[in-house]
Amino acid sequence: MWTPRLLDLLRRHHARATFFVHGDDAVRHPALLRRIVREGHEVGSYTYTGGDLGTASPFRARAELALTQTALAGAAGIRTTLLRLPHTTAADTLCGPSGRRRGARRTRATSWSPRTTPPASRGEG
Which of 5, 30, 36, 124 could be disulfide-bonded to 119 (CB atoms 3.0-4.6 Å)? Predict the structure, then answer.
């Protein structure tokens, strides 16, 4: 798992990060999520399974978000207001037809998952 190594690195450099977490990962790795919170990092929702909410039914979309909140509460006693939408295909899903909110800056995000390999291992860094 790369997340513990990343947490060690952040601690050494007195840095904080935001981890967008799949709810199913929170359920499978509650001790790791508790460590993230205990060390002062922010936690956001990446939905429960990482499904495409742009094509999901309203029921499925609500379930993904609600299940993630339940998983975060059960694993670490937290609730989040941060959301990163995974795999959305419709640009106007939340940001309107232009695909970007006014004043929004483009940033590169990396999802939290204990299975995620670091960018350098994928030839990206």
Answer: 124
